[in-house]
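Hi W.,

Here's what went into the run:
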Amino acid sequence: MKFKVTKRGLFITVMLAWPLIHYLVFGLFLQIQTLLYSFKNWNPYTGKQTWVGFDNYISAFKSMANDGVWTSAIKNSLLFIPINMLSIILSLLVALVLYRKIPFARFYRIVYFFPSIISIVVVTMVFSFALNPTQGIVNGMFDLLGLEEWKRAWLGDTQTALISVFVFCIWAGIGWNNVILTGALQRIPTDYFEVGKLDGITFWNEFRYIVLPISWSTISTLIILGTSGAFTIFLQPMLLTNGGPFNSSTTVALEMYRLVVEKNSYGLAAAYGMIFALIGFVVVWTVKWLTERFETVEI
Amino acid sequence: MFKRFMKLSLLMVLVFSVLAGCAGKTKEQEENGAAVEETNKKEEKVTLKVAFFQGGYGDAWFKWLKQEFERENQNVTIELEGNPKMNEIIQPRIEANTNVPDIVFVDESLMRKWGPAGKLVDLSDLYETEKTDGKTVAATITESTNTAMDVFGKKYGIPLAQLSQGVIYNVKMFEENGWEYPNSWEEMELLAEAIKAKGIAPLTYPGQYPYYLFPFGHAAYLQYGGTEFIEKITNPTEADIPGVFEDPAFHRTFTLLDQMFKDDWIMKGTLALNHTESQMEFLRGKAAMIFNGAWLENEMKDSIPDGFVMKMMPFPAAKDAIVNEPVIESITSGFGGIPSESKNIEVAKKFLLFSSTDEANRQFTELTGSSRAFIYPVDGLNVSDFTKSAMEATNKYKTVSLVFSPEAISDSPGLDAFGAIASRSKTVEEVIQANVTAAPDKWKENQKLINSK
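Here's what came out:
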């Protein structure tokens, strides 16, 4: 069989080449390089790389078991999975409420979406201003309500720093999920709701028998993204608390970032990267398997 | 027809953009190559490329250097390339030998990385060469700067700036209340109580970043452990591990820190604050003093209230101190070096010497409000009182700076000691225990790393 070079063929090849090359360089190549780095040490004084076998993995597992920084980081990163799920549930609730055509529904949708279009640096700044221990609106409100004993340095207290980061992630994440879920809800034919109404269906049953089965494919996608996203969160804690106080709000991705940027430990960071990629893969696959237990209704 | 036309034109645009990109590069490369050849042939017209980190010091000083150096050396043209991200973007360029400048002014950690790797010209001789003002570099730097610039017995750069970090206090508040900056830690304790009695917090610092507590810690290491102790932690031998980490000096330092938090010297909520937020609290008079550095005034220049006066001071010592005098931390920051790939090494050396003369150093201070890492006269300089106070403190009092040798495993190998104490997560004993336990393994790992070839 002979391939004839046509203009159309050339055009398609060129068009496909870009994403393919991009994937090969920034996807595949970097992954392979990370894998290779994880078996190497980088001498910061000579710039030489040496093969060290599983040394990096051994020190990684050692510190995952003993080092307070890593135990805290792993715990916090895993906690982000249920937090992301909570964010999806809340987004679904918001989407359902706004779908009911309440007054100013569009306005609220935009307001919820705001944190997604503003730079994360600005959003975290606004959030930390609100939680500022001396001038923040949150402590100010407690003052006004006479609840002075509730006031605290939200981002500077080992008891509340992580919770504050969680609240931020939920608050900032609702808008994005909401837009996607609203799209899914709008795909549901209105007849279904009308028939339901004629039958006197309750809100809960409508949700269970109409909304959930039809929009399940969207929801399950969000669940999988939320699970895998938990392992990559680092900007939010870095900008809000810098992982502190004393590692109480750090995450695995933030610690890996620090290994590279602050300590130049490329090998160790790469080993952690491989370990968490593996753990993440297992966790995400399990969640994917679970979401597939529920069937999506095709319309 | 229209569709076909659109497809065709799209393809053309794509193909041409790719080709144009290639063509542009080749042409540029050719031009560069030609320029190098030309300079080699005639040895008169030289273009010196100077790449620098354009951070807090801006670019005014480099522009001044360009102007003055070009005036004195008519055959030289200086090309300045300043970038706030220079520390990152210069790394692949130096490491892959592409688009290498003749001089770099970047972070000093890169000097320690590139020097032994053969990416920088050895400037050890340059330290003994006379500058145009008749002095040598070696004779005009402090001992701590000299140690800071040493990389395995060689010098790969000349120091750029010097950052002093100590206690900055609100001068007006002190005057109004009749307080004086203490000379001893015992007086500091009395002062803190007096400030607290007024309903003001004695101290604050950027609590999100425990390293703002380091200058206090480093000064205390010197005060309660002496110079041998500093030498032991920055340049330890195997015999020192892990014993050095339970030295009484660590105990004393961490206990003093612990006490400050226990006695409410530190403003409530400080741990939640980043640098600007905590500095704002200080400027608003919510705290009388702040642990901070010489850059504070420049960093907050838009927010300093009218008539606000501040001054930098060292950390006073307690009665039981071995080095019983106030100490301030002075860190050498940034370096100027010549990449080995430079085609104009001799001119570049001349430029580095030129940039280190008394006149250039004075210009640096006037234009950036910061101190050059050299000893030079500062009288008559048009700088703020705060900058003067910071420079005076560095000149007048004992200075400390921890420059760790490659073998060293930091002053706290087990955990973030300062963060642990500040957040009330660990007691002093627990911190010391954690360091003693972690040290042997860290030592082994580090020796293995630095000895890998």
